[in-house]
Design brief:
The protein is of the alpha+beta class and 241 residues long. The chain is built from 5 helices and 17 strands. A 6-stranded mixed beta sheet has the order 4-3-15-8-9-12, covered by helices on one side.
């Protein structure tokens, strides 16, 4: 008689992100928002809304939970000659959403805290897929494509809108924007995601990147910041062999 409870291959550990003050955050899913800063939408050749009434619907894609990197180093991935950085605010959910569409007013109650993330992107693969109207998962959802900082509980961050998100590479400023420039804010995004997915405690949401995305090379050092509250350090290591 077969034991259905017995694993037939070893179970992989759950990806976890450290939390300031102690403990860790087990990751369930990683949702990502595309084109959430107008200046980045324009630099990617897309139209940017002139007002909130013209926003339409946000663009979503996913990364696997085990794309998380917390050790400060990510290997240059295979299959690309154009790895690019995208610094992002990361929202960590500490509660399951109730069934149905999440009300904007209730969205904030799901948020455990915030971090910083790098949405590493194989831009050449993404661009080639987009040109053929094909899915571009290979450009976004690869191993070590989601370096993440420690998480800071929401109460220690306060109001997001006046905060400034930035990224330097080898000491030179590449990206910078205030979070009031987000086309869709955190409640907007959680509301929209709830129409498509059952949001769970352990979900991370990468909120989109401002303009200034550019290539990275092995040996480059990235430092992301949210004012003086959070820092993300990531070195691009040589490709694995």
């Amino acid at each position: 008689m077969t034991d259905a409870s017995r694993d037939v291959v070893p179970a992989l550990p759950c990806p976890r992100v450290p939390v300031r003050g102690g403990g860790s955050f087990p990751v369930h899913r990683i949702y990502c928002v595309g084109r959430n800063f107008a200046d980045h939408a324009r630099e990617m050749g897309a139209a940017a809304p002139a007002s909130k009434a013209e926003r339409g619907q946000p663009v979503f894609f996913l990364k696997p939970a085990d794309a998380i990197v917390t050790g400060g180093e990510a290997a240059y991935p295979p299959g690309t000659a154009d790895l690019q950085h995208e610094i992002e605010l990361v929202v960590a959910l500490g509660r399951d959403a109730p069934p149905g569409v999440l009300d904007r007013d209730a969205a904030q109650s799901l948020v455990f805290g915030y971090g910083l993330g790098l949405d590493l992107t194989r831009r050449d693969l993404q661009s080639a897929a987009k040109a053929k109207s094909l899915p571009w998962d290979t450009g976004k959802a690869f191993d070590q494509s989601a370096p993440v900082s420690e998480l800071l509980p929401a109460g220690m961050v306060g109001e997001l809108a006046p905060r400034t998100l930035s990224l330097t590479v080898n000491g030179a400023l590449r990206q910078q924007s205030r979070l009031d420039q987000l086309i869709w804010d955190v409640p907007d995004i959680l509301n929209a995601l709830s129409t498509l997915y059952a949001l769970r405690a352990g979900d991370l949401v990468f909120m989109g990147t401002p303009a200034g995305v550019a290539p990275l090379q092995p040996g480059d050092t990235c430092v992301g910041r949210l004012d003086d509250l959070l820092e993300l350090h990531c070195r691009i290591a040589p490709p694995r062999v």
